[in-house]
Design a protein that fits this description.
CATH topology: Gyrase A, domain 2
Number of domains: 1
CATH architecture: 2-Layer Sandwich
Largest sheet: 4 strands, antiparallel
Strand order of the largest sheet: 1-2-4-3
Number of helices: 10
Order of helices and strands: EHHHEHEHEHHHHH
Shape: globular
Distance between the termini: 41 Å
Number of strands: 4
Radius of gyration: 18 Å
CATH class: Alpha Beta
Structural class: alpha+beta
């Protein structure tokens, strides 16, 4: 199975706008609801981390080694909802495998919040390399998506140190002292400040 990312909210912008205007006690105008947002419109809202962005849901489908699935299942901030291929002999017709690298079908439902939280943990260089590469492959898939919401999410996905500007881990991997970190941090800040799309 190749990576598939499915938007399950039928009209993400319209749904998000209605949720947002509820917090203001207002009803959005039709032109607001019918706007065709680009990735920078989405970045503007996702970067604030307001609770209303949780109304948008999507599912990532992949086929991954069991050891990678195990690590992804432990990333629970924001409450992503996972489903994993069964290993029960009565379902599969074969003995349960003890191979930690056996490939398994995996699906995980996310909001922007839960996905960015997962990225903060699993894009970290202290994460096992196969797991980190799996998450990076999801981010790369988003970056090339036709859906602007996913492109925005991909631009904002980073490990904790890039997000916070320092390493919060007890045992630091040292990435925050590299040129790669400095480049990633500056790029993230440019999106947050609106410098990449002319907004300030």
């Amino acid at each position: 199975m190749s990576i598939e990312i499915e938007m399950t909210t039928a009209n993400p912008w319209k749904t998000f706008m209605r949720f947002t205007y509820v917090t203001m006690g207002k009803k959005p105008q039709e032109k607001t609801l019918n706007k065709k947002p680009n990735e920078f419109d989405w970045i503007r809202y996702i970067k604030t981390e307001h609770s209303t962005i949780r109304c948008i849901h999507f599912i990532i489908y992949d086929r991954l080694p069991k050891t990678v699935v195990d690590q992804l299942l432990r990333a629970t901030k924001g409450h992503p909802q996972p489903e994993v291929e069964s290993g029960r002999p009565d379902n599969t017709g074969v003995p349960r495998s003890t191979d930690p690298f056996k490939l398994k079908d995996f699906a995980q439902e996310h909001t922007a919040e839960s996905f960015l939280e997962l990225c903060k943990q699993r894009m970290c260089f202290r994460t096992e390399e196969p797991t980190r590469k799996a998450v990076i492959s999801w981010v790369e898939e988003m970056m090339y998506s036709k859906e602007p919401f996913f492109r925005a999410l991909g631009e904002l996905a980073n490990p904790s140190c890039v997000k916070y500007g320092y390493c919060p881990e007890r045992l630091c991997c040292g990435y925050n002292k590299t040129d790669g970190y400095n480049i990633a941090r500056e790029e993230l800040l440019s999106y947050i400040k609106g410098e990449n799309n002319g907004q300030t």
